[in-house]
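pls design
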């Protein structure tokens, strides 16, 4: 198993870094429940989309960014998420 100069396994570092984007959107998702819907361009199994949907946030998902942009209403949020 690869480690860095601190002796922390590379896998653990990557897991921690992967949680940063999700943590950054928690306040956005919390406030979205009382505001306009969120529109996502991502796969159905995207973690952020699944959390928003499970939290009861009004959201719509589209497979292509162009379709999501076309369907987004004024004053709503649009998240175009990269796939790994």
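designed seq:
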């Amino acid at each position: 198993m690869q480690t860095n100069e601190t002796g922390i396994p590379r896998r653990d570092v990557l897991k921690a870094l992967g949680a940063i984007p999700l943590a950054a959107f928690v306040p956005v998702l919390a406030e979205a429940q009382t505001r306009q819907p969120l529109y996502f361009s991502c796969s159905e199994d995207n973690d952020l989309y699944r959390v928003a949907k499970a939290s009861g946030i009004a959201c719509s998902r589209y497979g292509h960014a162009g379709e999501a942009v076309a369907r987004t209403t004024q004053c709503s949020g649009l998240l175009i998420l990269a796939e790994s």
